[in-house]
Each structure stands twice: as C-alpha cells, then as structure tokens.
Write a structure and sequence with these properties.
Blueprint (H helix, E strand, L loop, with lengths): L2 H5 L6 H10 L2 H9 L8 H12 L1 H4 L5 H19 L4 H11 L35 E2 L2 E2 L8
Antiparallel strand pairs: 1-2
Helix pairs in contact: 6-7
Pfam family, one: DDE_Tnp_IS66_C
Organism: Xaviernesmea oryzae
Protein name: Transposase
C-alpha cells in the first residue's frame, strides 16, 4: 500500500516521511486480519493487570524483595488458572495440599495448563480469553516462570 506513491515523491519531503511512518508498522497491523486469534486491542491484558494496578500501594509493603517475588509468583498462578478456565481458589487449595508428596520430577503436572482434579474445580468450557493464544493443554502465562 502506498509503495508506488512513495516512489514518486522526493525522498526527504514531509509527505514521504509521513508515508514511511505510516507504512512501517503496516505488516504487523495487517497480521491481525490474517489470524483471527490476534486481538485488535489489548483490553484483555489491561483487565488482567487491573487488580495489580488497584493494589499497587499495598504491594510496596511485601516485606522484602523475596516477598515481592513470591507475591508475583502467586499472582501469575492465579491469572494463569483463570485463563485456563479454572477456579483459582480450588486450584491452589488442591495443589498446595498435594505438592509436598508430589514427585519433584513431575512438578509440571501441577501447573494450571496440565492440572487435573475434581470436575467441580474446573469452570465450564468456553472460548479462550481474547488476546491470549491457546496452546496444547491450555493457556500459558509465563512471565514469572519462564517455562
């Protein structure tokens, strides 16, 4: 788009600069039309971060850097459980009661996208939340775990 028009303009003209500025992100913008899973906005990410933004003043008092890292790990687990349509409270209750006796080599079994428990703990199936790509077994949020 605009390629022919751009070649007909002097390279340093303001209009040529404006066209180059507009065309630079064009491939990324049109990718959303090629793949229906890509959201046109970041509303899902904004909603996911709303709770963190509301409580930001309280998080200053995590006690230490380690306390803040542990809080971040729990927030990540809670959001990932929600994205995988699990009840976060039921998920954490089940995992925390099982983890002490669970083999260390199989800890990945307890991550939200691999976790299986009673049907009461799972939410009804529905579409994946907008703005997140589903993977085999569920939706992953890997900001903290780096998996």
């Amino acid at each position: 788009m605009g390629g022919k028009s751009l070649t007909q303009l002097p390279g340093r003209s303001e209009l040529a600069k404006a066209l180059r500025y507009m065309l630079a992100p064009w491939p990324a913008l049109t990718r959303a039309f090629d793949d229906g899973r890509i959201a046109l906005n970041n509303n899902a990410a904004e909603r996911a971060l709303h709770g963190v933004a509301v409580g930001r003043k309280n998080y200053l008092f995590a006690g230490s850097d380690l306390g803040a890292e542990r809080a971040a790990a729990f927030y990540t687990l809670i959001v990932t459980a929600k994205l995988n349509r699990l009840d976060p409270e039921a998920y954490l209750r089940d995992v925390l009661t099982r983890i002490a006796d669970h083999p260390a080599k199989r800890l990945a079994d307890l991550l939200p996208w691999n976790w299986t428990s009673s049907p009461a703990a799972a939410r009804p199936a529905g579409p994946s939340p907008s703005g997140y790509e589903a993977c085999e077994g569920g939706v992953r949020v890997l900001a903290y775990f780096g998996v």
